[in-house]
Amino acid sequence: MTCRGNSMPRSSKKSYSFLGDIKQNEKAKLEKQLKKEKDPEQKTQIQFLITRMEQQEKALQEQMARKGKEQEIRKHERELIKQGKTPFFMKKSEKKKLFLAEKFQQLKKTGKVEKYLQKKLKKNASKDRRHLPKRHDKE
C-alpha cells in the first residue's frame, strides 16, 4: 500500500471483495431486526444504520462509475495518440463539468432536478450566511 492517499489500490480491492457480501448480509440482518423491533428508539437507530449503509453503497457505485468513465476517456485518448493525433489531457475543471453535466442528465431522467437544485440553493445560502459578518446589537 502507498501513502499517497489511495487507500485501496486495485490489488487490495480484489483481495477484500468479500467485504461487499458481508455488508449485504449485515444489512439484511438489520432489516429483519427492524421488522421485529418494538422499541421506537432502537427502531430509529437501526433505520439510521440501514440508510447509512445504503448511502455508502450509492457513493461507492458513483465512484466506480466515475472511475470507469475516466478510464474510458483515457483509453480513447491512447487510441487517438496511436493514430498519430497530438495528446490531449483533460483538465480537472473540464472533467468536473463533464461529470456534472452527466449528473444533470441522470437527474432529468429520474425527474429529481428541482429537488437537487433546491438542496443546492439551501446549502449555498447557509454558506453565504456563515461568511457574513455577525450583527452585534448595542444596548
Any descriptors?
76% helix; mainly alpha; flat; 139 residues; single chain
Task: Provide structural commentary.
This protein has 139 residues and is mostly helical. 76% of the residues lie in helices and 0% in strands. The protein contains five helices and no strands. It has helices at residues 10-15, 18-36, 40-82, 92-110, 113-131. Helix 2 packs antiparallel against helix 3. The termini are far apart. The model has no long low-confidence stretch (mean pLDDT 86).
Give unreliable regions as ranges.
none
The major sheet is characterized as:
none
Binned strand content: under 5%
Number of strands: 0
The backbone outline, from C-alpha atoms, is: flat
How many H/I helical runs?
Answer: 5
Terminal Cα span: 61 Å
Give a short summary of the structure:
With 139 residues, the chain is mostly helical. The protein has five helices and no strands. The chain has helices spanning 10-15, 18-36, 40-82, 92-110, 113-131.
